[in-house]
User: Fold these one by one.
Assistant:
Number 1:
Amino acid sequence: MESILDHVIAKYNYWIYVVLMMIGFYAMIGKRNLVKKLLGMNIFQTAIILFFISTGAKKGGSIPILDKYAALQGQVDVNQVVNPLPHVLMLTAIVVGVSVTGVALAVMQRIYRKYGTLEEDEILHKIENE
Amino acid sequence: MTPIVSIWPLAAILVSLLGALPIILANRQPNLRESWTILIALVKLMIVASLLPGVLEGNSYVFTIAQVIPGVPIELRVDALGMIFALVASSLWLFTSIYSIGYMRALDEHAQTRYYASFAVAISATLGVAFAGNLLTMYLFYEMLSLSTYPLVTHEQNAEARSSGRKYLTYILGTSIGLALPAMMITYSVAGTLDFTSGGILAGKASPELLALLVVLFLFGFAKAGLMPFHGWLPAAMVAPTPVSSFLHGVAVVKAGVFSIFRIIFDILGPETLQSADLGSLITYIASVTLLIASMVALTQDSLKRRLAYSTIGQLAYMVLGAGMLSATGMLGGVMHLAMHAFGKITLFFCAGAIYVASKKKNISQMDGLGRRMPITYLAFFLGSLSIIGMPPLGGFISKWNLLIGAVEGDQLVLIVVLLISSLLNAAYFFPIIYRGFFVPATDGEGDGIKEAPLFCLIPLSVTALVSLALFFYPDTLLKLARMALGI
Amino acid sequence: MKSNLHMYVMAAPLLTAFLVNIFGRNNRKVIAPMVLGALGLSSLLAIAVLKRTLMLGDLSYTAGAWTPPWGIELLVDPLSALMLLLIAAVSFIATFAALPCVKRDLEDRQHLFFTLYLILIAGLMGLVLTADAFNLYVMLEITSITTYGLIALGRGRAPLSSFNYIIMGSVAASFYLLGVGYLYLLTGTLNMADIARYLPALQGTAALSTALAFILIGLWIKMAFFPLHGWLPRAYTDAPDGAGVLIAPLMTKVTIYLMVRLMLTFQSPTFPLISMDVRTLVIWAAAIGIVCASSLALAQRNLKQMLTYIIIAEVGYMVGGAWLANDQGMTGTLLHIVNDALMTLCLFLAAVAIAYRTGSLHFDNLKGLYRRMPWTMAFFTIGAFAMIGVPPTCGFYSKWYLLLGGIEAGQWEFVVALIFSSLVNAVLFFRIIELAYFGSLQDSEHHAHASAEPQEAPWWILSPLALTAVLLIVVGLSTGPLVNNIIRLMIPVGF
């Protein structure tokens, strides 16, 4: 029991992401309101982004802005700098996430204009009655 | 014996396939359309006939259309067995085309262009089955035949025709995709090839159990051969116009089924392989059951075309029975019956159509006294039925005699009995029709004004009846081809 | 070998997308020549790429001159060149039909539609080209986002269908991204070939299994593999006709190709990616999926909706074939990707043609269609035969390899499912053929000279349809060279 607890505490950041991801996933699948679904999606994505960022972090690491010549001569201790690659990747992922959110919001506007509601049940009800 | 590369087999198939185009284009000019049909039929027959001398000398003609699967190209090969079927089919198509003109015009049928075009595609597929060089190619054309005949079965476009069309496809496509295709795949994965090779490709490669499975899958998979319990489509398909029933469901389609089974037994499974696994009796029993039941059911049918359909089912089983005997004489009888029955049965169907055109009668019970009004038709009918029953001096006698000899040689008492009973049954379901026609007087006032059908109908049926007769006296070419096909 | 050639294939639609947006805004007439020109050029270049890869081997381009494994590599081998050609050709053909549909449905938004349309095509090409796992995610999202937009342009409940697709698509992409994250943690690299080198050492670890599971589930949602298919039928049915002809043939097929590509890259003699248990599980899922999707297709009363369920069944074919993990099955899957794209294109083009003339694809509306649209229905019939798997159309040959793979692997449930699905397809299509060709006649028509005026679809739709129908047969007959010269080359020994 204690070892599991140690395990959780040692990697508490990852456990937070897992919890976040579950919350997001539940909202996407379980909620009937389209806005809540979209929010769930955003939470889900954010959790993954945080996860990636965490993988690059190092205890005591500094920002990866280096002297080119020092780096070329191998004078930089890689343990002292954070891995920048996950950050770069996540910049792209954030852009992707924002775009998807934008498209989803636009689509949602069209739905609202057409049916006057964003509750999935009500929309389906209206479609059936058409 | 070396195969000769030749484009003519392909040409023989393509001439009617491409010929469908001018037929469609001549939609609004019936005379031009029908001239095309006759012309194509003539050209086709000539091409097939031109290949005959070479085949008789023992040559075979090959042509590879495309490489599709390793070791299994789409390939045509003209050999003796294929030649028999091709000759029968292409010569009878000519007669059927002439007959169609008389029949379709006399009844002022709709959608005649579709009818002639589908017919042309169907005959192409039939020749493709005949000339296929391996199992895959044969399967390809077999499917093409199924699909091209569907519009012909559904021709009437009423509820009955549609449900028959559905039944037709269910039986034919269901069995070919569900049974024959897996059997073919298994054969390929065991043998590594699908080429038709005299003596089979599975010798020493398959266990008896697997062979038995393949026999069952193939026999029922090629449901066009009408083996029970997959025979139901044939009586249903009789809703089609009579030329269709006569040519396709008396000759091309059903024989394509039997021909496929021949190919399987002779060139894929191999008679000797089957013999050593003792599977001949499996085939003959399946065939015998069909034979007897179909003949008995035929007795009960009042609709003339349905009676002919059940007769066809029975006669097809004869051919399978012959092949299943696995003895030289038996197989010879089976192959010969394929040709003999074709000429006999097409005559009978032509007659049924002529009776319908002249009198609009479909049921035997209404046909009292018709023979006196339509003597030529009834005489042809008489000859045709004699041939089917297997009486001299008609072609059917030769094949049935060989079948009987084959059974005697093989000491297969059961088969002898089956053959004899069945011939009696054949006589029992044909003679009443003729008797009614000639000797039972028509009820008062009925039948007045009925006369022979148009010449376009009458000539083909007389010719095919005479050919049936001639085949008794001059069967040499056919016999030679059949012997070559069987390597005896 | 270093080369830029394959980048031009992708660049042509990508750049034109922006040009169409700028110039098409004011002058509608330039849209058609620009789009067709770009895609035509793309197709020609794709042919050149295919030829060059067959002669010279793989072509590689590194973005920004960062050498792999750090930089992003865009790699093309004969197989991806074939896919590139497939994408370019299918989109080129589909565009002919898309143009009149878009002109009618989205009169004042044509330039916007085609901007999305071209970016989608470029994204699909990028998916095929990329050799970088993260870049693949970006491309996946580019194609997805454009697809969301295109579907939302449709009529009726299209926005709602699109929204559901957005949610499912995002879950899929996130799963994929998560899987890639794990892989990155484990291997420290994102280049796929590089990842493959580290995998044998990690064999059997829970982390690796989790990573691969996330990636696969992500891709399976995107390709609508049963039971993750829920979003597809409505999304594809409600998409505007102009988008449907592009999305339906390509999206699922390209995603399947990605799965196959990952499998082929990661699989090696020292690292059997496909363990026996998982394999059996996936093949069962594929078999059940095929049976269920085929049965659901039977329940549909609308042509397009029926086709969408057939697409799902076909996905089962390909996933199952790939997981058979033998030479024949893999060949069948790759061949079927090409064939299915063409078959789906043919059937969707026919559906679009019918919808264009009659307005509805409900079965009641198809009665007697043969008289009104004889050519359309003739080509539809060829497409239907290919779907059923009637030789010599191409559908038969890929099914042949798949069946053979199933028999050799002893996975009989897959064989049975394939045959069942072929039979159901026969029922599905002959039901329509019966309605269209052999509907009951009026009394007046029951004679030789009855005629009805044909109302054929416009040439813009009919000619691509005719071309596709011919292609179905041509590709079928050239199966041998296709398999021997391209597909077999790419399947590693011992697969």
Note: Chains A and B do not touch (no CB pair under 8 Å).
Number 2:
Amino acid sequence: MRSPRGPQAPLPAFASRWRSPLRGPWLTSLLGLALLVGAPVLLLTGLLSHAAYHPDLAPTNNTTPGSGLLGIPLVSWPTRPRWLYRLTQGVHVTLGIALVPVLAAKLWSVIPRLFAHPPFRSLAQALERISLLLLVGSALSQFATGILNIQLEYLFPGSFYPLHFYGAWIFAAAFVLHVALRLPLALRTLRDGGFRARLRTTAPEPPDAHGLVATAPAPPTLSRRGALGAVGLGSLTLTAVTVGQSLGGPLRSTALLAPHGQTPGSGPDGFPVNTTAAAAGVTRPGPEWTLHLHGPHGRRVRLHRDDLAELPWRHAALPIACVEGWSTEDQRWEGVALRTLARLVDADDPALPVFVRSLQRQGPFHQVALTAEQVADARSLLALRVNGARLSDDHGYPARVIVPAAPGVLNTKWVSELRFGEGTWP
Amino acid sequence: MNGGPSRRLGSPVVLLGTFASFAVTAYAGWRLLGPQPLPVALWLLGAAVVHDTVVLPAYTLLDRALSRLASYAGPVRNFVRVPAWLSVLLLAVYWPLILRTSDRFAPHTGLRIEPYLWHWLAVSGCLFALSGVWYAVRRARRVDT
């Protein structure tokens, strides 16, 4: 190597502690390559989820206000295909969980480097090591934050969204640098290693300049194939007990450990909810419930249940997909199209964005904004019925919004008010 | 080029790359630290420290202890090791549900938290059982030949 990065064996005191004959540049490179495929998918689907909230539309949609350049949405999130968020967020959460053993194995494989001696030989190397601390710290805390969040175990400091969002950027910055500095070496190591031959053997890799290969290896107890198999089996097992919550239907019950592997009962409303009416602090409104519509030119309309019943109704088969990764198969919603309601207050030509308010008085997303495109989609409903029955309390009785491809939290439940056009927004 | 100062600075490409990376980190980090910088910084960097100084040594020692216990039986070792690794992995990811510490779970989702412990035990039991069957089959084959 031309850089002044000379051989760096682990500290003599520690050199004999790391005894596994499996450690070496080849194993580390292979695990690194798996993460090189997986981590960008996690980052991309995460950024897509950020865009799916339409953070630019209204402060209430923006979970990371003041994010500057980092918060610019990647795309204008569409309403087609209707299962888009199911797919991207299901992949985000399930893949994240499946990569836990790969990350663990990768960190295990490079642990001798922590005790490299001397710790650094140049300023560049010292900075790179600081970057590695950020890389490992942000990777582990990103996984921990996401995994705890889907189980509603909020042990992390502050709100989930900024922590996971900015944490992702810190990870991305360190990850790109790490890949740029190490990918050539990893590819060279894999090319020269002889894949099949290396898999079969239990003998240590040839001594390396990085101190990964044990200087005093213990007798082998597991082949490389066995070790990699155990990592892969770990990913498979985690996927097997998780993915059903994103596939839905009869496969939901296969998600034995995932938060939404269960269904809350059977029948027309027997599909998962993020928040029950009781947890949201919403008590069932009586017959006096009124839907308030506000139009851009000052027009206001109040509708009771009976009035809504007399408007033209529509059906839409749409899923619910949560940021937590779980989703449902298509449910059969019935109600009044948002654009039909917009017409009542002269807000249909051109289509305008809408601000939706709930009977829920607090908590994140008790009010949200939807884009003009979302309002204009004929399948976007103010739903009053699902699967042939009146909405249950937990699913948003008396009325909820359902928009194709939108994250679950934008499908406001217990709706009380729709304000069409930004001029009417609070 | 390997005079004293440049040797001490290291590769200029690495230096530039690191500065670019740190610029993004600083831009995001300043926003991340926000009103409670210390707990967030601890969460971010503490994860690395706890992993490297507690988690990794803990499972290494656990594996060594387990291996020592099972070593009299030689070939049995990996048939215990692999299901144990899978079982610990499931617990490491889903402990808030398995150990029933997530207080918000039941009221928010309307679901019961009780089944997760039984599910984890059942899955772990099945994994050990499968591994046992596999071991028995392999030993039987070896005896045959």
Note: Chain B touches chain A through 70 residues (CB under 8 Å).
